[in-house]
Design a protein that fits this description.
Layout lengths: L1 E8 L7 E4 L4 E5 L6 H11 L14 H21 L3 H13 L2 H7 L2 E8 L22 E10 L1 H10 L1 H13 L3 H20 L2 E8 L6 E4 L2 H5 L2 E6 L16 H10 L5 H17 L2 H12 L1 H10 L15 H11 L3 E4 L2 E4 L5 H19 L9 E7 L7 H18 L2 E6 L2 H7 L4 E6 L6 E5 H11 L4 H20 L3 E5 L2 H10 L6 H4 L3 E5 L9 H7 L2 E5 L11 H5 L6 H10 L12 H9 L4 E2 L3 E4 L11 H10 L7 E2 H11 L13 E4 L2 E4 L9 E2 L1 H7 L4 H10 L9 H11 L1
Parallel strand pairs: 3-12, 3-13, 8-11, 11-12, 15-16, 15-17, 17-19
Antiparallel strand pairs: 1-2, 1-4, 4-5, 5-6, 6-7, 9-10, 13-14, 18-19, 20-23, 21-22
Helix pairs in contact: 2-3, 2-7, 6-7, 9-14, 10-13, 15-16, 16-18, 17-18, 19-28
């Protein structure tokens, strides 16, 4: 028996979101405060692991307050029409009967759970809840509702009618703004109290369309269908010697031992100690000692108690439970290497965390040996197992968990905000929690469904698509999952420049967000498009325009073609032009496309490359030098002038030599430099960058160390970052 699907409606920031669960492990990935813990709390409360029940505080904040104001307006209308209690209630009931059920449905919290099974599985616990008799149906359907009950609301309002009337009268007679605000606040607080008591829990089983519901009278009967446990992320690990409150592993081991084959031995310990205490007459000795030590106090009491004979003594109440508690307090987990033993806090928190989770899992698996457990849905959640672990330990432990769940036939969920964990999990096991289009709204993005949809769209390439996407997922996709925004770029020098640039004060807003830096060649940027749009991540793609290297005449450049496959893919798709890779795309068309901002695609992607305002450059470094010196690719300067610029700007770029008996390659011509002079030979930025091609990293270091990032900021990057900041 496995949970196949969970649909969530009107729960905190989730509304109309579905979680399709894998047969073994499903990973819920998301940044901090994305809602992962809310999902676990939902399971805990519905499946009975938590004593805390769903309440009005679990309803979506905005929806709940809108609902509160809507009810207030209805009450005001009813009260303004008729003021006495009986007529007021009658009018209210009439309002509630006018197409109100549909509205109530929208304002109620609902969770649908589909439990699937296979041929041969024992379904005796579930069989009473089978509503569909179709032989092809291999699922049971359940619904949990936290629903507004209008009759409860009306009855509660009726009981407190006088208080309601008093506040409404005050609201109507208030003349000053301040007085009006106070009265408005009072009625909202009063109504909120009534509304919170007007919801009712309910468990149901249903048909597969969830159109017919049959109430399950006892919620515990529903919860008995599940063998459910979880481990919170807030696991208090011992991080200080002598911290008795944090003997987490010791407590877990004692708890574990108390439930396995050693239990009988453990149970004899208290009896053994009690026997020793009786034989040594320890209790009598303690009583006599206490009387001797307290003699002065006893004499003082006798003088003031009116001659009463009571004596003050320290008695020893040695019971079985007290001895057992003592043993648990003094029993400690130890690490042993040879003859040496170490306390649990001497090991790293990550190691202790891992041992604790192992103990909890083993205890759970031991419970699975009970035949009754195999009739239930066995579901185990671990919140953020990566806590305190370094990346390599995360990989090893998560790989172990995947194998464990599969080998034991267990089902469960792991929440994480670690890219390493997500990489090990693989694409199909991951569900991503991301922000929705509205405030306080979250989406659950199913990576398994994403991959299957891609394969169905391109059936002839299905196998290749899955293989290639899984490779890219391990390389880069995992970083996108947690990102607020993404910057894609081509090379190492771009990475250096962008990371340094974004530390500047002008990009404070971007610094406050999680920016994923993804290095990808221009020809492969298009591979990421479907994922970016699926996850709805605002992404800036910085790529080189890539026209022919030998061109340095502006008019010739405009009539030349780009060799960048990624630019061509985005351009033709955005223009809705059917094209193949062999078709040529003019640079002047790209300049027009960029100037009209058509390079912003579906609100989520901006494809930015060197343009006219970047001096018609074709690479990042060319654009940076053009910006710094205010030149274009046509601009020519003597070698002497380039040397002066290099010294003045303190930049590490190379200048072609002008020695005797050497040839200087300028454009398509070779100039004999035997008689050439540095003050006569003119070259452009293209020749400078050609000479610097093997030292681009040195060049970028010189830019950063001299803090010239803003001064050399190319227009295409500046424009892209401004769009990303919006």
């Amino acid at each position: 028996m496995k949970i196949k699907k969970v649909d969530i409606y009107n729960y905190r920031q989730f509304n109309g979101q579905s979680i399709y669960l894998e047969e073994n492990l499903t990973f819920i990935a998301g940044a901090n405060n994305s809602g992962k813990t809310s999902i676990i709390e939902l399971f805990n409360r519905i499946l009975g692991e938590s004593k805390t029940k769903i309440s009005a505080n679990d309803l979506p904040v905005i929806e709940y307050h809108d609902w509160l104001k809507q009810l207030l307006n209805i009450i005001k209308e009813c009260y303004e029409i008729i003021g006495d209690e009986k007529s007021f209630i009658e009018e209210l009931e009439k309002k509630f009967d006018e197409n109100f059920d549909e509205e109530v449905e929208k304002k109620s919290l609902k969770v649908r759970i589909e439990v699937s099974y296979k041929d041969g599985e024992i379904i005796e616990l579930f069989s009473p809840y089978l509503m569909d008799l179709d032989n092809k149906t291999y699922s049971f359907y359940f619904v949990y509702e936290y629903k507004f009950i209008k009759n409860k609301f009306i009855n509660l309002l009726k009981k407190q009618f006088n208080k309601c009337k008093e506040i409404l009268d005050h609201l109507q007679t208030a003349t000053e703004d301040r007085e009006q605000q106070i009265a408005e606040k009072k009625i909202l607080v009063f109504l909120d109290s009534i509304l919170q008591q007007s919801y009712q829990h309910g468990y149901y089983y249903a048909d597969k369309e969830y159109s017919v519901l049959q109430k399950i009278e006892d919620e515990k009967e529903f919860q008995k269908l599940f063998h459910y446990k979880h481990i919170w992320a807030s696991r208090d690990m011992p991080d200080e010697k002598g911290d008795k409150k944090k003997k987490t592993i010791s407590s877990a081991m004692i708890d574990f031992i108390g439930n396995n084959e050693w239990e009988n031995i453990f149970e004899k310990w208290p009896d053994m100690l009690l026997n020793e205490i009786d034989e040594d007459d320890i209790v009598k000795k303690i009583t006599e000692s206490s009387l001797q030590q307290l003699s002065t106090v006893i004499q003082s009491i006798s003088a003031t108690n009116g001659g009463r004979k009571e004596q003050l003594v320290v008695d020893t109440d040695v019971t079985y439970d007290a001895i057992k508690e003592l043993l648990q307090n003094v029993s400690n987990a130890k690490y042993q290497i040879g003859e040496y033993k170490f306390d649990e806090e001497t090991q790293g928190l990550g190691y202790s965390n891992m041992i604790y989770m192992h103990l909890q899992l083993q205890k759970y698996m031991n419970e699975l040996k009970d035949e009754e457990m195999n009739k239930k849905v066995n579901f185990f959640i671990i919140e953020e197992p990566e806590a305190h672990m370094h990346p390599q330990m995360q990989k090893a432990f998560v790989s172990y968990l995947i194998d464990l769940y599969e080998n034991q036939g267990m089902q469960g969920m792991i929440t994480t905000h670690s890219s390493e964990v997500v990489r090990v999990a693989g694409m199909k096991r991951v569900r991503v929690v991301r922000r929705g289009s509205e405030p306080f709204e979250k989406r659950i993005c199913d990576m398994h469904a994403f991959l299957e949809n891609l394969k169905s769209e391109k059936k002839d390439l299905a196998d290749n698509i899955e293989q290639e996407y899984n490779i890219l997922f391990k390389i880069n996709f995992a970083d996108l999952i947690f990102a607020d925004k993404v910057i894609m770029f081509e090379g190492d020098t771009e990475r250096m420049y962008l990371r340094s640039l974004l530390q500047k004060e002008i990009y404070t807003k971007l610094q406050q967000q999680y920016i994923a830096f993804v290095q990808v060649g221009g020809a492969y940027t298009h591979w990421y498009r479907q994922l970016i749009e699926f996850l709805e991540i605002k992404t800036l793609i910085l790529t080189d325009i890539d026209y022919e290297k030998e061109h340095n005449n502006i008019e010739i450049i405009k009539e030349s073609y780009t060799s960048n496959g990624g630019i061509k893919d985005y351009y033709y798709e955005q223009k809705k032009i059917v094209s193949d890779k062999s078709e040529k795309l003019l640079i002047k068309d790209l300049y027009s496309w960029q100037a009209s901002r058509e390079n912003i695609i579906n609100d989520y992607i901006m494809l930015s490359f060197q343009g006219e305002q970047d001096g018609y450059a074709r690479t990042l470094e060319e654009a940076m030098i053009a910006k710094l010196l205010g030149i274009t690719v046509e601009t020519q300067m003597t070698i002497e002038q380039w040397k002066e610029k290099k010294k003045e700007q303190k930049l590490a770029f190379s200048i072609p030599k002008c020695d005797k008996k050497e040839s200087l390659d300028i454009g398509n011509d070779a100039v004999d430099t035997e008689l050439a002079d540095e003050q006569e030979v003119e070259i452009g930025v293209r020749e400078i960058l050609k000479a610097t091609s093997n030292h681009k990293t040195d060049f970028m270091y010189s830019v950063i160390l001299n803090q010239k990032e803003e001064e050399m900021l190319p227009y295409y990057i500046k424009e892209g970052l401004e769009w990303l900041t919006e």
